[in-house]
Specification:
This protein is α+β, with helices and mostly antiparallel strands. Helix content is 40%, strand content 23%. It is elongated. The two termini are 30 Å apart.
Length: 94
């Protein structure tokens, strides 16, 4: 979808009723949740215990961490000196 096509679509939203906008909003939110779920599932498949990873967060920037445990939405990571962090899978880069 091009930017000009998107702008015309957004301008057409003013013609919709409130109930139609609510149902459209619900569909958009559901699609966003589905795409985030798919991204985290794909990322989780690539993770394994003992793997060396990095985290996209200023607190842990530039540090090499190792995966200790993988949960449904988060992973427990540790640094060589023993400090452990529980991090959302979406922030993990490998």
């Amino acid at each position: 979808m091009t930017l000009s096509h998107l702008k015309t679509t957004i301008s057409e939203l003013s013609t919709l009723s409130i109930s139609e906008l609510r149902s459209l909003n619900g569909a958009v939110v559901d699609m966003i949740k589905h795409k985030r779920n798919m991204e985290s599932t794909l990322k989780k498949v690539g993770l394994s215990v003992g793997m060396s990873v990095r985290v996209n967060h200023p607190k842990l920037a530039g540090r090499e961490l190792f995966v200790n445990k993988i949960s449904r939405t988060k992973a427990t990571l540790s640094i060589k000196n023993g400090a452990c962090y529980t991090v959302p899978i979406s922030l993990i880069e490998y």
